[in-house]
Each structure stands twice: as structure tokens, then as C-alpha cells.
Amino acid sequence: MKFSGLIFANLFRKKIRLLLTIGSFAVALFLFAFLAVVRNAFNRGADVAGADRLVVIDRVSIINLIPLKYRDQILQIPGVKCITHNNWFGGVYQDEKNFFPQFVIDPENQRQVFPELKVPDDQWNAFLKDREGAIAGARTAERFHWKIGDRIPIKTTLYGGGSWEFNLDGIYHGERPENDETQFWFQWDYFEERIPQVVKGQIGWYVLRVNSPDDSVRVAKAIDEKFANSPNETKTETESAFAAGWVKQFGNIQFLIMTIGTVVFFTLLLVTGNTMAISVRERTSELAVLKAIGFSGRAVLFFVLAESLVIAIVGGLLGLGLALLAVPALANALNGMLPQLVLEPSILVLGLVAALLVGIASGILPGLSAMHMRVVNALRRV
Amino acid sequence: MAIPLIYNVRSVKARWTSAIVAVIGIAGTVGVFVAMLSLARGFRATLVASGSPGNVLVMRAGSTSEMMGGISLDSVKIVQDAPGIARDSTGPLVTQEVVGVIPFPLISTGTDANVQVRGVSPNVMRIRKVNIAQGRMFNPGLSELLVGKNASTTYAGLTLGNTLVFSGTRWTVVGIFDTGGSAFDSEVWCDSAILNQVLKRPPNIFQSVTVHLASPDSYNQFKDAVTTDPRLNVDVTREIDYYAKQSTRFTTLITVLGGVVAFIMAIGAVFAGLNTMYSAVAERGREIATMRALGFGAAAVVVSFLVEALLISFFGGVIGCVAVLPLNGLTTATINWQTFSSLAFAFKITPELLVKGVMFALVMGIVGGLLPAVRAASLPVASALREL
Lengths: 382, 388
Known about the structure:
The complex is a heterodimer of chains A (382) and B (388). Chain A has helices at 4-11, 15-42, 44-48, 70-75, 110-113, 121-129, 138-143, 188-194, 216-226, 239-249, 253-281, 284-292, 297-333, 345-372, 375-380; strands at residues 53-58, 66-67, 80-88, 102-105, 117-118, 133-137, 151-156, 162-174, 184-187, 202-203, 205-210, 234-238. Chain A is built from 15 helices and 12 strands. In chain A, the strands form 2 sheets. In chain A, strands 1, 3, 4, 5, 6, 7, 8, 9, 11 and 12 form a 10-stranded mixed β-sheet that branches. A two-stranded antiparallel ribbon of chain A has the order 2-10. Chain B has 388 residues and is an alpha+beta fold. Chain B folds into 2 domains: 5-48 and 246-386, no CATH class; 62-232, no CATH class. Helix content of chain B is 49%, strand content 22%. In chain B, strand 15 (331-336) and strand 16 (341-346) form a beta hairpin. In chain B, helix 9 runs antiparallel to helix 10. The radius of gyration of chain B is 30 Å and the shape is elongated. Chains A and B meet through helix 2, helix 10 and helix 11 of A and helix 2, strand 5, strand 6, helix 7 and strand 15 of B.
């Protein structure tokens, strides 16, 4: 690049402006990454749902319980691979603000249905042997500084109430960073032993896996038909439809945030692009001199484009780099309010592409007009 | 001596392209700031409006929401006899309620969303400020529904006169009620005894009891009596506090999100403002030097440039506020995680919020204008005059 010296000299002619323009670029890209991360967090449940998993809940209301005896009947349906059942415990650890979901699980089958949530075998075996044992997600364990072996009291007003104590026997990690690492699991046997007679033998919902995702519609229908006209009719959905249902209930909040964010992102880019265009326009006469001493129109276009691209790339990388640093901090600030905030590589790529496009767009117009300008006219204008 | 204001107005006019860029940046920032805060305000206002100062919510001790409650009929009777409760010809003004969550299809997407269904006592109208907008009150003992105004317009099939089936029971919508924009407007009400039956809950168990006090001041008297009664195991909260607390989680979420976005944008807008002002200073080297030569002091130049930056940011702030003003009153819905059900609320843009928005713009103006102003004032007069 024999002209790189010239391009750099041009870039640095106004250092403050250069810094500010790169800064605005960085800000815009940072915002882009942040909004994309938040958007993904809102949609998280649907993204990580297993394609071969079905959720069975009570048809009337999600908060109604369904009988445990449905389990064997569901297992008879061809295509069902394995099934686990969960209850919502709804307890409070120390303070109401410390929200995390507690599930009563079927320890024999939970790992087969959710293979992506990994617990080391030794921890899992200790859990199986310990009636009051519990497994916590890595994020929840970290949040409350729990260590394996800790005794954890959880208060509840459901199921007869009182304070329940658990031994933390293991910590699970998600296979992907997007997996929910906030759950707290404990054993069905311990749960059923302590709850009042009227709710014994009743579970919150079933999660099952089918042999192939192609079976899911058929199996879901078969389950609901089996329990139609029974005292507890069921509603069976794929896990992603179930999660998407919750996402939809967030309503258009997410849509509003995204609309606002998008408008803002493009405003910022417009502002930045315009500044870059102005700095080229200011130098019309210099560019005319370049042409007068023999540089072709294309070379001039190249100089202008190269300059705006350098600014766009440096600014974009800076912004995305800052986002990489800041997202974990923001995830802590929003702890418990949104699912895990994760900056995926696809967001970074998309952001860089956006930066490049704006770099080209803001350089191309002034660049083209510089390419086509008549040297005589431009030189005459002072 | 100060430089006349008209100089700044004219100079903004002369450099309108770069001024507009700065104005847009600031307007966008202020718009986002105001919109996000109004969302949080609206949500909070809706929940807070649900509570009335004269009402007290009684739930099982330790419950964080009505969903978790469980109070037997015996306990309800003890509560009814407590001191401080308002009474009229129908007896003590107490409504014992059953709360359920039933999915109904949304008109907008056709997918199901959870609606809070509340079984109430027949005397509920004397306890909460409820206005029957259309139709009539349900008849106790019949499966009739009274639908909140927002629920009626959000979900399919909840219109007056319609019959629908849920929980294996056929229901008729006999009335639409309006509580003036509170969370109850997103609910469906019916007779508590019937709801308990169809939800197959154990009989004579209620989730919460709402008590209307003889006067808001009798709260302590009532609370002491109920919480010290050894036969009862309940918590007593003012209705207002209960609903205000429910709103904190969502309000914090929106405020943090909105705050982060507005802050990042503010940095971007300040950068744009700095760019505009720096190029203004650079282009006007001779002008500034001329003014200095005429006898205006360095301070006058700083003030003049700051005024110009404030002028631009003020415009930006006002435009941003005006741009989001149509959002005011716009109804939207989100899920209330405390009840697992959907809640409709409106953006609430208050004059105070607008003032805050403009102040925010002015702060950005000062931050973006100060450094260029100082640079303008410190230009060496002689060499700047010589410049072409």
C-alpha cells in the first residue's frame, strides 16, 4: 500500500475530530451489541428449547397440578423416549429479592430429559443417595456463594409452608452459555413426604423426550386425547412453543425496546456518517489538487473510501470490544430479572458488517462526487 | 461585556447542517430517555392505582403474592370480626377471594396468554372503586363473568353477552367493568364459590382477603388485632404497598435497561455535539479573533459558545420530547411475573418527565460545548486574524 502514508496523514489532520468520530462509531456499535444481547435474552427460552422435548401441563391453568399416575400412561404412547416431572416450589431464600426458580425433580429421569445440563457423576451420585440433597445451577450457586456441602434453608408458603433445608450436593453447568443456570433442583421423594395429604401424588408438569422431532406433533395429540374428558385434561406443546408462549406474554415491551433501539442505532450512524462526509467535503480543493497533479478519479475515490473504512473498522472493533467487556457487568446488574445475557459471535459479526456498510455508505457519496468533480471548478472555489 | 445572543442564533442558522446533526443526536437520546421512563412510570402507576389507601390485603403469613396464599373460611370469619373494618347494611366490608390463572387467546396474535381470574364476594363493589361500564354485576351462584375493560379488548371472546367454556363450565359475560386503569382492568371476575369449584380447589379456602377500613387511620388498630390473634397466621399489608412492591421488579428492569441505553446514547450525542462545536470553532477562528480584537473578553467568548451549545441541545431536547409525546396513553401489555398473568398498562408521560428530558439535553449541551468554548477563547488573536 504505497498510499497508506497519505491516507494516514489525512486521517490524522484533525485528531480531535478523528477521535470523536471513532468514538461515536464505537458507541453506536456498543449499543447495537447491547440491544442484540437483550433481545436474545428475551427470546432465550425458545432458542435453547430441545426440538424433541414436549411439555405437558394442565389444560385449565398452568398453576393447577396433574396426577403423577399419568406418567405410566404417557410412557405407553409409542415414540416417547423418556419423561420427567417437575413441581414449582415457589420458595424464598433469605429475602424475597433473591429470586430463583426451585423445581422438584424426578431424579431418575431428569438427566435423560435435560442432557445439556451437566452434573459431574460423583456429585449426581451423592445427590441420589441424599434425601435432602439439592443441585443448583452454576449461576445461582455463584450468586449466593454456595459451596458443595452447604446447608440451604428455603422458606415457602405453598405445600404446607415452613422452612425446608437442603444439602447442596452438586452444581450443574449448561452445555451452552445460553442455557438457564439458575434453577435449583431437589428430590421428589423428599418433597412428597413432607407435603399435605391433599397434594400428594400431584405434579406440576411433565417434560418428555420423543424419539425424533418428527414424532412430536403426533405424540402431543395422543397425550391430550388420552386424558380428554378426565378430571385433569392436559395441554401438550413442544418446549419451544411453550417457551415462545411466555415470550409472547412479555408483550410488545420487547418490540418497543427494539424499535427504539433500532431507530437510535441508525440515528447515531447517520450522525457519524454525516460527520465523515463533512470532513471530505471540506477538503474538496485538496482532492482537486490531487487530481490536477495526475491522480485518477478512481484513486481519489479510493482515498476517501479507505479513510472512512478505517474509521468505521477501528470504531466498530472498539465498540464491540467494549461490549465484550461490559456485557458480563450488565448481566450482574440485571441479575435475576432477565435470562442470562450472552454476547454471541453472530452478534459481533453482524455488528462488524453493519459498521463496514456505514463506512462505505458515508464515504461513497462524497467520494463519488470527488471522483467526478471538474478540477477547474473545484480549484477556483476557495 | 457579553456577546449578543443574536450572534449565536445567526451562527446556528449559518451552520444549520452540522447543527441539525447535533440536534438529531440529542433529540434521539432524550426521546429514548423519556420513553423508557414513561414505560416504567406507567407500569408502576397501573399497579399503584390498584391499591386504595383504605383497603388492606390479608394473606397467609410469608406469602409474597396472592397466588401463594391460602386462608380458610374460619380465618376469614375471625378477620371479619376484627376492629377497624367498615360496615354497612350488608355486613362487614370484606371480600375473600380466589385467584386463578386461565389462558385466553390474544386478539393480536391468536396465541394464549394467561389472564388472572378472580373470584370475589358479591359485596366487592362496596370495597373497590369499580364502575360497571356495560352490562350488570354477576349474580352470586351463577357462572357469570364480569370482565375488566382491558381484558375485554385484549382477549378474544371476552365481549359482553358472549358465552365461553373454560374449566369444563359454560360462562356468560354479563358485564364489563372499569377501575380507571388499574391492574384489575386486566382481570376477569366471578363468584368466588363457583371459581373454587371449577378450579377443583379444596372448598372454603381463599387466596386473599381484602378489607375496607372504616378509615385509613384504623390500619394499625386492625393490623394489631389480626396479627396478634393466636388463631390466625396471616400477614397484613396496605393494598397500595402490596401493589407498589409488585411493580418493583419490572420497573427496575426497564429503568436499568433504559438507563443504560440512554447513557450510551448520551455519550454518542455528546461526541456528535463536540464534533459540531469543534468544527464551528475551527471555521470561525477569524471571527472569534475579530471579536477578541474588538474587546470582548475570553469569558464572553466561552459564555457565547456555551450558549450556542445550549441552544442546540435545548432544541434537541424539545424535539425529542415532542417526538415521544404521542406515546402518552398508549396501552401495552406485559407479563406480571408475580402473578404469572398478563397486565395491560399505558405509557405515562408527565410534565415532570419532560422537564427531566430537557434538563438531560442541557447537561449534554454543557458537556459537549465546554471544551470547544474554552478552545475558542484560548485562540491566539494575532495569528488567528492572519489566517485566511
